[in-house]
Amino acid sequence: MRIVALAADGARNLVPLQLAPGPRFNVFSGDNGQGKTNLLEVVYVLSTLRSFRTNRLADAIQREAPRATLRARVVKSDLERRYQVVVEPGHKSVTLDGKTPRPLARYFGAFNVVLFAPEDLQVARGSPADRRRFLDRTVFGWRPVYLELAQSYEKVLRSRNAVLRNAAGERRAPDLLAVYDAQLAPLAIEISSTRRALLAELAPRFAAAFEAITRSGIPVALRHVTAPELAAGDVDAVVAGLVRDRARDLARGATSLGPHRDDVGFRFAEAEAATFASQGQLRALVLAWKTAELDLLHDTHGDPPILLLDDVSSELDESRNMYLFEHLACRHLQCFITTTHARHVRLAEDRVDYVVRDGLISPVNQPR
Ligand SMILES: Nc1ncnc2c1ncn2[C@@H]1O[C@H](COP(=O)(O)OP(=O)(O)OP(=O)(O)O)[C@@H](O)[C@H]1O
Ligand SMILES: [Mg+2]
Q: How confident is the model at residue 317 (pLDDT cuts 50, 70, 90)?
């Protein structure tokens, strides 16, 4: 799949833009703070209806502007579709080919992106919350219905936590909690099992990619860390667990058991990568994940996703960069690549260059 036209008006610092990106490599160069990541955010929001920079989409509206209007025309298997997202404070409206998609899940599936950002390179040693976000981004590209599932879960979880916090003096609290426990348990299991299924699909591709990158013969694996009740997939056991933890949850004002506490373990030479692998090896693990994610989404959707590569080259050493670009050059992917220096991007062919300055994106006309 590829974007044949991209437009944004009122997005962060970007000057209203209209681009006709090239089918393969689109390289956006510019100094720090000029709007390169903002451009990738536009594409990401159009594809996923979420931002990777903020939980409040309204942050992506240009200061002082009433709204951000984002549009893309995307071709998949010779079929062109028009995607539009209008973000206003507290509200977004979404259309696909001029109509509101119902259910919303119909919006997704023919416009997939994989994002690879420099922050990701720290993920193996980062916090569990960072790893869950990282994992969920991949899960979501793989199973678009996951978005609604995750949102339903978060909503019930927030309600349950509110009851926990206000339980003192509330006679109905035990009844309310019983209702929420029954709603939460099946959603919790579905989230956990979807994540596990994704990791099972990703793992062989991940191990193969790691070997291709490092040629080290070191075995690597991914481990889903989740509560035993969730892993067992037994609704009654999850409800029983929530009841068992209730006194503690009331004291904490938060729910202890659930996939909001899941984690992903990066295993390296049969040990925890976070404590055992070198900084460079940790980066190679994340690079392997992203390569595996591209392969998986390609296989799943029958078409390669669009890659958003946010200034990753400057964080990778020579040989990892070589691997990355060689890998990309032999795939039929459309890529949006940002960099502070165009020469860092070692791609000679099928490339269109742009300069990003103060929110203005201009094509570079002269041959390189
Ligand atoms: N809502 C907003 N309205 C207007 N400008 C914004 C908004 N949010 C962020 N900016 C501006 O956008 C600029 C940052 O853009 P961006 O993060 O895309 O930079 P970048 O080119 O990726 O830089 P770097 O190379 O440092 O990553 C900053 O100048 C910031 O002040
Ligand atoms: Mg940036």
A: confident
Those residues whose C-beta lies under 8 Å from the C-beta of residue 271, and which sit 6 or more positions away, are none
Amino acid at 197: A
User: CA 189 to CA 259: how far, in whole Å?
Assistant: 8
| Among the ranges given (63-67, 81-85, 94-98, 143-147), the one the predictor scored with the smallest mean pLDDT | 143-147
Residue whose token pair is 């099972």: 200
Ligand closest to the CA atom of residue 62: 1
Domain ranges of the chain: 1-112+305-368
Is residue 158 predicted with pLDDT exceeding 80? yes
Q: What is the DSSP string of 74-86?
A: EEETTEEEEEEEE
Q: Which two tokens stand for residue 168?
A: 């003192």
CA 229 – ligand 2 centroid, Å? 41
The atom number, within ligand 1, closest to the CA of 64 reads 3
Q: Which atom of ligand 1 is nearest to the CA of 59?
A: 1
Task: Name the closest-CA residue to atom 26, ligand 1.
Answer: 32
Q: Which of 9, 12, 39, 314 to mutate to test the pocket of ligand 1 (most atoms within 8 A of CB)?
A: 12
Residues within 6 Å of ligand 1 by CB? 12-13, 30, 32-38, 61-63, 311, 340, 356
CA 286 to the chain's CA centroid: 13
What pLDDT shows up at residue 116?
93
Ligand 1 atom 17, closest CA: 37
Task: Please give the structure tokens belonging to residue 156.
Answer: 């019930």
pLDDT at residue 367, rounded to an integer = 54
Pocket test for ligand 1, best of 13, 14, 52, 341 (most atoms within 8 A of CB): 13
Angle between helices 146-165 and 128-142 (to 10 degrees): 140
How far is the first Cα of the chain from the last one, in angstroms, to the nearest whole number?
A: 27
Q: How confident is the model at residue 13 (pLDDT cuts 50, 70, 90)?
A: very high
The domain made up of 1-112+305-368 has a fold known as Rossmann fold (3.40.50)
pTM of the model: 0.92
Whose Cα sits closest to atom 24 in ligand 1? 32
At 171, is the secondary structure helix, strand, or coil? coil
